[in-house]
Amino acid sequence: MSPARAHIVGVGESAYARWGKIGEVSEHALACQAIQRAVADAGLSMDDVDGLASFAEDRNEAVFLAAELGLPALRFGNMVWMPGGGGGCAAVSNAAMAVETGQAEVVVVYRSLCQGQFYRFGSGGVSTDAPADPPVPSLQQANSLLMASMGFAMPYGLLMAAAAYALPTRRHMHLYGTTSEQLGLLAVTFREHASRNPRAVMGGRPLTLEDHQASPMIADPHRLFDCCLESDGACAVVVTTEERARDLAKRPVEILGSEQGAPRGYAFGPFTNANIPDALYATGGGEEMAGRLWAKTGLSPGDVDVAQLYDHFTGCVLMQLEDYGFCQRGEAGAFIESGALAWKGGSLPTNTHGGSLSEAYIHGLNHVVEGVRSLRGESTSPVENAEVCLVTSAACVPSSAVLLGRK
Amino acid sequence: MSERYFPDTMPPPMADGTSLPWWKAAAEHRLVVQECGACQVTRLPPSPVCPDCRSDQFGWREVSGEGEVYTFTRVHRPLGAGQAIPFIIAVIALDGSGGLRMISNVVEIEADAVAIGMRVELVWEDMSPDLAIPRFRPATN
Question: Is ipTM over 0.90?
């Protein structure tokens, strides 16, 4: 007999906006709003919630949100210990483990992101204005292992994620002949999906391949439209037991399996690690993890009806398609050109909400939200009779994934 | 002082006790890799334990600074006041290092001329009397 599996029973979000556009409402207030909407969507009350989970060095700690939201008790407060967006599905996985083991009964996974209220990611706090009194360059004390690792990237000007993930993408182009136009087709496809999604920040802004090719170079091969949005917003999903899921407001979505982590020697991935094994360098680093996910669920790539793949940069989506076995290594460019990812007529409709390239960048938790909607029949780009959805969180960093199933 | 390629406003490196010896060697214009004292497998960045044999014994091996470009990107966004763009960030495969690579820059080159596989050589940039950063330029021999 297989163990009772956790289910996702509610999803919710705040309005999504461009970076810095939400300045009056605090980031944690937005988290509270998303959590309340997800709980209401499930037909539950905040009095039912006894766990909170997040990831990506969330500034909005569960202990404070539990108090602000009046949780009767916080029985499970969890933060995934991986930097960046790689922990989104892992947070869902940890919530599932909590409810499956009885540590908690209703866990809300949340992410709130209003970076305009803090500093701009990728700037390293460095201003392009000339300082009045420039410091003498000197070695600084690293205040964490991550920053000691960044010490082997920052003095070379490697601060932007767009530059970091250009490195494996450039290598992929060198090895397999992948082109900028193939990357651009990804961005165009996801933008088309966003055109039907009223939540999408870029919903009213059509994008052509010509627009993509004419967009400014950021860190080649990444042009502006190869890079995800920078957004303000929050979203949340509610995880509970199979038994509790049976009589709630919406059709529950089953968590069929989840995986998280990184392969041997990966550390933070190509952002700071130049010594990823050669066979792994021009990949998303997720192939082993994907193999474990298929093995534990008994499913294969051909069983996936719809996918929500973390799209911080187009090159990272391309490499995930190979990691997860939707095509052979080196063939993702041709796979994209075949139209496979398109809602209209594609064999693997992907990022039906528009993704982080066109809906919003909420560290990919909005991909879990869309995964649930796509199996409930609530997506604005619905895939008929979809039964299995793959959701991934990041690539080229320690990452995670869940397979969701329609009940 | 050496030739300068980047302004003083470039982000400085950060080190902890494990990586400090690497930066001290750099200040003396020595490019080193960490070498396991038990199995002699090399590694970068520095770490406390050999991931292959788990020995905590280690030494430092100086390398020539010759190597080749493994991958690269041309960054078109300014970083710090006075930074010329585009500038090149590259992963360099280091000769004689036991198969190691490092992140660095390629300098003294037209941005369009950089390519995977091109041979490069080490050039030190003294950012200040106490801080030297290893960068690479096209091989001259």
Answer: yes
Contact A313, A212 (CB under 8 A): no
- What pairing do the DSSP bridges indicate for beta strands A7-13 and A140-141? unpaired
pLDDT of residue A130: 67
Q: Which of A137, A174, A220 sits opposite B116 (nearest CB)?
A: A174
pLDDT digits (tens, 9 = 90+) for A293-310: 999 999 999 999 999 999
Q: Which residue of A has its CA nearest to B26?
A: A139
Q: How far is CA A81 from CA A77, A89, A146, A153, A182, in A?
A: 13, 12, 12, 21, 34
User: Is B79 found in the same domain as B38?
Assistant: no
* Residues of the domain holding B40: 14-62
Nearest CB among B9, B19, B86 relative to A151 is that of B19
pLDDT reading at B121 higher than 90: yes
In this structure, CATH architecture of domain A7-118+228-406: 3-Layer(aba) Sandwich (3.40)
Same domain, residue pair B27 and B52:
yes
- Across the interface, whether the CB atoms of A159 and B11 are under 8 A apart is answered yes
CB count in 10 Å sphere of residue A188: 20
Query: Of B25, B45, B62, which marks where a domain is finished?
Result: B62
Give the number of other CB atoms < 10 A from CB of residue B68. 18
Interchain CB contacts (distance < 8 Å): A and B: 166
Interface of A with B in 193-222 (CB under 8 A): 216-222
Q: What is the pLDDT of residue A118?
A: 82
Q: Where are the domains of chain A?
A: 7-118+228-406
CB distance A361 to A161 below 8 Å: no
Closest in A141, A155, A219 to B11, CB measured: A155
Please answer yes or no on whether B12 and A139 come within 8 Å at the CB atom: yes
